């Protein structure tokens, strides 16, 4: 059913006149008459009683008028909701963020809520692998993860940060006093690293393998502060990305940047390569660009892990 014809009919009933309806709609009277005739043909019954210059609804016309008012109001509300969505005054967005990355997003969330208070924002935590899977399946529209991502996952990646890895050990570590360490300095170390479902652990293992050795692992934990506590107790050396290391209590411990290893903690956003990004998701990425640094102009497909 033509919504425009329905609108013309409702206006005609409201004014009880083809002439007055045409004036209210800024169209010709013949246009109103034509549209209402089409509506009557579609309904299969007369909707108006034409009496000189007046028009009154038939019994079916009264039903059409009441329902027409409801349909037109629904269409008005739909248009308003669509406009509010494109204007970012309403909507919902769920972003996947690994626990190790979430500390970077405090200023982003604050700015996003200030700028778009009408958008309901939910942060869904999970490992980088879990977030990648949720985005690939379409359950999440956008997420953050450790880069690079697998090239065959159908995902696009946009980096927003690259940070060095730090080594944290007891006060009497053999390398105490040094500000940077090569990867080879950890050949005989006992490592304190995150569990294997963390991308940084997989990358560390690969970096050591590429260097031709594999240090022993003293312990693994998903809790960063526990890794530092174990390092403080002399159980081994912890390896943490810089943003996390800066938030740990390392006073009195030996700390050094892992240098000349080609190993960085690279983080970025991901979404389906051929997928649609909502207005809310685009707004989220814009705020991230502002708060976390400008990304490359063209988002690239991720390289292999």
TrEMBL record:
Q: Which Pfam families match?
A: HTH_1, LysR_substrate
Q: Which GO terms describe its cellular component?
A: cytosol
Q: Does the keyword Cell cycle apply?
A: no
Gene3D superfamilies membership: 3.40.190.290, Winged helix-like DNA-binding domain superfamily/Winged helix DNA-binding domain
Protein origin, superkingdom = Bacteria
GO molecular function ontology, one term from the record:
DNA binding
Q: Could you list this entry's UniProt keywords, alphabetically sorted.
A: DNA-binding, Transcription, Transcription regulation
The HTH lysR-type domain extends over 1-58
Q: Which SUPFAM superfamilies match?
A: Periplasmic binding protein-like II, Winged helix' DNA-binding domain
Belongs to which family? Belongs to the LysR transcriptional regulatory family.
PANTHER family (UniProt xref): HTH-TYPE TRANSCRIPTIONAL REGULATOR YBHD, NITROGEN ASSIMILATION TRANSCRIPTIONAL ACTIVATOR-RELATED
Q: Write the protein's name.
A: HTH-type transcriptional regulator CynR
Q: Which organism is it from?
A: Achromobacter agilis
